[in-house]
Amino acid sequence: MATKSTKKNYIQATGRRKTAVARVRLIESKKEITVNNIPASQYWPSSTFASLYSEPLITTNTHKKYSATAKITGSGKQSQLDAFIHGLSRALVQVNPERFRPILKKKGFLTRDSRMKETRKIGSSGSKARSKRQSPKR
């Protein structure tokens, strides 16, 4: 039995923020951006998120040429959006590094935000990292 050879017609990149991981595939088409098989406009319905998820494509003037699909896991919606932007920007750099890298680097889309939640400490009563037990008054 002969094996089929399928040509890869997409560019894949990974973006991260906190515990969110976005696997982004950049496709050469004019389709809508989808996230976890849902249109991005429905996945991030808030007006603050609406313009942000396509920002790397608009910045590089490729929003009419490329579309993207993404699988995102972990964290909350804001961190997932940041991870998606990071992954989409990294995929665009793979397309044309000389042209897109300086533009996206200047906007800060290629920088991995390394801030993470501080871990809990032993002896703390609450669920936070720096919470302490209240000392007795007398």
From TrEMBL:
It comes from the Bacteria. GO terms for biological process: translation. GO terms for molecular function: RNA binding; structural constituent of ribosome. It holds the Pfam family Ribosomal_S9. GO terms for cellular component: cytosolic small ribosomal subunit. Keywords: Ribonucleoprotein, Ribosomal protein. Residues 129-138 have a biased composition (Basic residues). Gene3D superfamilies: 3.30.230.10. Residues 110-121 have a biased composition (Basic and acidic residues). SUPFAM superfamilies: Ribosomal protein S5 domain 2-like. Residues 107-138 are annotated as: Disordered. InterPro entries: Ribosomal_Su5_D2-typ_SF, Ribosomal_uS9, Ribosomal_uS9_bac/plastid, Ribsml_uS5_D2-typ_fold_subgr. Belongs to the universal ribosomal protein uS9 family. This is Small ribosomal subunit protein uS9. It comes from Candidatus Chazhemtobacterium aquaticus. The lineage of its organism: Bacteria, Candidatus Chazhemtobacteraceae, Candidatus Chazhemtobacterium.
